[in-house]
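Please, structure for the following, as tokens.
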Amino acid sequence: MSARGKLPDGYIDIEKAVELCGSSTAANITGVVTDTLEPKMSKGTDHMSTLKIQDMSSIQPNAKHSWLRVRIFNRYVEKLPRPSVGDVILLRNFKFTFWAGDPLAYSSNWSQWLVYAAAKIPSTGFQEPFALGRELPSTNKSSDARAANPAEAMYIIYLHENAPVVSNLPIPPRSIQAQSNPHVVSARDRFSLISDVEIDRFYDLVGEVVKTYPDRGTLDLYITDYTSNSLLYEYVTPEEEEELDSYGGNGDSWRHSTTNRPHKWEGPYGKLTLVVRLWQPHAEFADEKVRPGDFVFLRNVRIKLSNMGKLEGQLNQDKQYPNKIDIKRFNDQREERVQDVLTRKEKYFDHIKKLESKASKGPRKQRKKKAKKGIEQARNREESEQTANALNAPEPIDTVMVDSHRPNQHVECAHKDIRLTPLSNILNSLQLRGKLDDGTAVEFPFLNLRYRARVRVVDFYPSKLEDFALPLDDKSYNNQESDQSESEVWHNSSPHKRWEWAFYLLVEDAVRTSPKETPTRMKLLVNNDSAQYLLKLDATDLRQDKQRLKQLEEKLFILWGDLQERKSKGEDISPAHNNAFECCIREYGVPVQNPRAKDNFSARWTRMHGMFETTIRG
């Protein structure tokens, strides 16, 4: 981790903060705001402001908690923070506890806080004055809070730069945000099918237990009522998983890694299964009394999004009746709602059998493909009937095909346990489409998500390697405005120009649905940090530094073969001759200045894709 990415002295990350829950120890912490609630009265005499934050520790694949709830108290409501999603907040001398099963940071009389609006945090190109002592202005702070010191300021800039990586969801306009205050419906209206659940609401569910997985005092209960929801994780068939295994995937998502799933998934396949995290005392009851194949009733399950954007449930301890068990195992399957589940289950398996029987009548070579195609089409038909998100979905993938050659072993991608995603699926993600509370369809301009893909480079920009590094005083590249003060004085007094990597790779998909399909292409930005990770080289003036230019050529030859040589000679560079490699891709949005986009949220953002955590060895 770079110096900018190092926590300031005296600060801890969210993972460490969770370990302090229940103790009397106070600590300093900082993070990106991912959700906020309007201030309200506490049960005492104070008002309180509640928000959620994430940091770099909370997004790691092995993170125990993907966010931290923060609660700040004050006698006067006007003295509470009112941050927006994407802002960075510093919290000093906060204590930690568990509330409703989740970690909570809360203020005391000695706590301080400062809010830094995302729009006013400078870019990394103008960070040096703040490292030298210039004050980074906050937009809101507690009355006794001192200004951020240089180490804190640098880390705020670092977090702001990495906010698209930290947050897993786009920042929609207020009118289409999921309700941040979980809505508790009346008891008589609380029952729901899994297909109809919505984020941040509480439901009663009835379903069949598919699997149980105990984990450090909690238990994950996998249940299905044989209805589909497009935001659930998709479990693939054994045939699909074999194909994924053949090119490095494991048929699993970031949330459901094979380390947590030692046995093959036995169904149901598709987006039919909801994972509900049970806390005590429910976890102990389920571990002792509930087995796969049982039918259960779950009371007051909160539906939320996992850190990978998939629906999951959470069943916490009842604060009023802490020993109350909100799980009931049905001993009599004649109960009406159990019968409804059994009816849907029977239809599901009848349909699967018909598809398999029909596919088995064709040539042996085509059986698996036909069965898979039929199941996939049926799955997509069901989803299209149940959710408006799927009405404009792309054609379902019939078969996944990859190059017969092994991927480039000299290019290493982090997160090797993550399933490969075709570029076409990234570009045409169903999660880009949602709906308002009144049912009106809406399309998000981008998603803050990360993927792993297998691609090959087919072109690059700029066309000359000498232009892959740019000086920060080049206004055509670094057009960030600064005031006519310390920042500009510092730049003018520096004896050397500072350079950054900035280039694009045009890549095409090495994962296709048929041999006749034209591979999907995507433009990937490689920014300074990603290029340093990729090349293990610092940017310099490549027109003067011939040694560094030579090193760059040698590195990129490993990545793209003779592409540069053929391009420099004016030869046809299509089709590409180089080997495919695996890389990490992040999607994010960049705000644009468009006065005509005032009433069009999507038009105010440019959808971007960039490479990250991919390195060339050698």
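The longest helix spans residues 336-360. The radius of gyration is 26 Å.
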